[in-house]
Amino acid sequence: MTMDKNEIIQIKELKKNFPMGKGEFTALSDINLSLGKGEFTGLIGPSGSGKTTLLNIVGSLDTPTSGEAWVLDQSIGKLTAKEAAQLRKKNLGFIFQSYNLLAVHNVFENVEFPLLLLKIGAAERRKMVMDALEWLGLTDKVRSKPPQLSGGECQRVAIARAMVKRPSLVLADEPTANLDAANSHHILQTMVKLNEELKTTFLFATHDEKVIGYLKRKIYLFDGKVAKDEWVTSNQTAK
Amino acid sequence: MKTALKLAYRNLVGAGLRTWLNVIVLSFSFVVIIWLKGILVGWDYQAKSDMTNWEIGGGQYWHEQYDPFDPFTLAESHALIPEQFSEEIAQGDMVPVLMVQGTLYPQGRMQTVTIKGIDADQDIFLLPTNKLDTVVDAVPAIIGAAMAESLHLTEGDLVTLRWRDAWGTFDAMDIVITDIFSSNVPSVEAAQIYIPLELLREMTMMQDEATILTFRDPELSRPAVQGWIHKPKNVLTASVDRMIKTKTAGQSVFYAILLLLAMLAIFDTQVLSIFRRQKEIGTYIALGYTRREVVGLFTVEGAMHSILAAVVGALYGIPFLAWQAKVGWTIPMDAGDFGMAMAQTLYPVYSAGLVVSTILIVVIITTIVSYWPSRRIAKMNPTEALRGRIQ
Predict the structure, then answer these.
(1) 3-state secondary structure chain A
(2) Out of A89, A94, A104, whose CB is closest to B10?
(3) Could B288 and A104 be called an inter-chain contact, meaning their C-beta atoms sit closer than 8 Å?
(4) Which of A25, A42, A171, B373 has the greatest number of beta carbons closer than 10 A?
(5) Domain extent listing, chain B
(6) What pTM was computed for the model?
(7) How confident is the model at residue B220 (pLDDT cuts 50, 70, 90)?
(8) Which of A102, A105, A145, A148 should be substituted to probe chain B, the one whose Cβ sees the most B Cβ atoms within 10 Å?
(9) ipTM of predicted complex
(10) What is the mean pLDDT of residues B10-25?
(11) pLDDT at residue A1 greater than cutoff 70
């Protein structure tokens, strides 16, 4: 299978089963999708609809049971553990519902972490981290540790960590689920800005109306299948 | 590896008290093991040095009949000193000692002793034999402090000594204690009485004879001599080696218990970490680590406990070990009761080999103990780990 040069994700006939008792539970089936570079797209659906499972497969944290998922010209199902790790390390950024910050590291060290894995030199690393912290308005929290930060600040650190290496694709799983409305909007506006300025592709898994309001493309999942896939015109999105 | 080391260091330092508790327990193991091993090495060094200085010199020739464990052999274990040693003796590089059995009668009591005739001018042994060159009305004699205490003898005391001459005839005369010496070698003091060699030869009619010939230089090659058995220094100190070996084996159990305690703490921390830090493990994987690399990170973290412990141990251990090397460790019971060359105060001796080998052993064991539970990470599902759902 070949990908169009403007495509970043292509999914064909994807199916994902999980073992359950003596049988299997089908989390995803008949998924056919294509995402272009620079999209700001969300997988929308209720709990159990399969959006996180799909996000995990796209993020090479899981593999499809059948079908194919191509991300940045790489077939997820055929990657070795090392190749999948390389894909995540170089090209993917993750934002989680519960932030998943390293509690014993300070803000600078948390954001620096992906760059350490990429073995970027200390001086360049520092500049990149400070740039990311500046985008997210966190320069005054450099030495703070996650337990000293508010939920909104933690999520901004997580975004800075996801963005610091300028990934091609950011996968955000319910990024506003633990935030109040004001913080949610602030975070989402930041992500829209990053999407527009850096042309980074964002793929969300969400059922939060606040997030949905910012999406440019909405892919509705229901019972593990794509129920609806719609594009939003620019005057429909929240700003 | 550099990244893993950096992250492991950050994780350990960030973990705070839990890390430092493990590090302190482990550092205690380092210091105690090095100290105990140092005491053994020091004891070995001191025992051999004391035996050399007080009893065996650079090695000996024994009369072929002589058996130190059978006093009845003393009557037969004497002979003329071989001609070939005359020059060495004249130069003071060999000391002949004549030994006969005798009985001492202090204050009406009776004590079997070995009478040793030794040249007053010798300087191979630390024995104060110059005190045998004293002009007194009786035979001048020196004895060890342990015997003086048990027989209630003090300097200047007169006491009757009985012996047999070469023909088996009993004779007796008074001796005067001209000096009481202290050594760390019980066999030099226990039931031994030292008198001038020539006097003993006259008393026993064993002119120019000796039982033991002690030479100064252990390095010279020694010829076989008819009627005499060559006893090199290492043969004469073999009993010390055996005792040290026994003690080392005994102490190894103690080291094992100490290490076991420290390793249990590390193992426990690792097992708990793997469950408690599931989300963190998932995050590492999401950010680009392979599971094997996460296993490596956790193993490095565990192993780093031992590196930090070595550093912390050095902070308080170096002053402590240096202070101990200076003031020594005084045994809380009478060292003479051990029946072997042992000072009341032992001075530990630390070699670079001892310190390096101890650190290496502890680091290697800690690494293995850290790796063992970390292998579970390799089986973790990262998506489950990210949510902290693994039970």
Answers:
(1) CCCCCCEEEEEEEEEEEEEECCEEEEEEEEEEEEEECCCEEEEECCCCCCHHHHHHHHCCCCCCCEEEEEECCEEHHHCCHHHHHHHHHHHEEEECCCCCCCCCCCHHHHHHHHHHHCCCCHHHHHHHHHHHHHHCCCHHHCCCCHHHCCHHHHHHHHHHHHHCCCCCEEEEECCCCCCCHHHHHHHHHHHHHHHHHHCCEEEEEECCHHHHCCCCEEEEEECCEEEEEEECCHHHCCC
(2) A104
(3) no
(4) A171
(5) 2-52+239-387, 59-216
(6) 0.69
(7) confident
(8) A102
(9) 0.90
(10) 84
(11) no
